[in-house]
Amino acid sequence: MYNSSEGYVQIKKELGKMLAGAGFRRYKTVTWYRVTHGDILQFINFQKGDQWLSDKMTINIAVQPLYSPGCSFGILAPGGRLGLLLTPAKDHWWLCNSETSTEASITELKNIIVNDLIPFFDNTANAEQLYHNFHDNSFRYFWANSYDFITKGYICLKTKQYKEAINIFEANRPSQVAKFKTIKNFIEKEQFAEVDKILDNNVFHSKDKLKI
Length: 212
Prior knowledge:
The chain contains 7 helices and 6 strands. Helix 1 (about 5-20) packs parallel to helix 2 (about 100-120). The protein has helices spanning about 5-20, 100-120, 125-135, 150-160, 160-170, 180-190, 190-210, and strands at about 25, 30-35, 40-50, 55-65, 80, 95. The N and C termini lie far apart (about 40 Å). By secondary structure, it is of the alpha+beta class. Strands 1, 2, 3, 4, 5 and 6 form a 6-stranded antiparallel β-sheet that branches.
């Protein structure tokens, strides 16, 4: 008898082919990613439901600047469910408990990837685009994690919005921001090239840690 685990595997397989054709690479078994020319790590994560959602699956999406410390495939933030890109936005799960439901889910998900996900990723491919995104109220759900302020601050540093970066850090928990005092000191002294060196160093270490 066909079960949801088989359907889940089939969905991952079919969507994986599509993502590979769009320039994404696989990381382990449930994640596909790409790194943009703007040093942005964009990835999706497949998730099988359990308990009352055991006949369904969903996809999580995340966008993380490599110049912001703490990049990880295990952290789905800034990000959210794929369904949150739809109108109306919702935490949507797709059926995969029969051949018919699985095929229908594959068709629907392929359309969403082409019409919603890829355009969203294309519009969050560099610091300037991400800066506008986190100021866009329609994407407030995407920046809902309590630690997203760190990412926002580093995006501001990358776009040379230095005052805004410091304001964001200080309005939250500056003790959680790597090298906060050093960065603030460089900005106060207008040693902006030193700030850029910190960002470049973060990119190097992120790529090395993630093996990408």
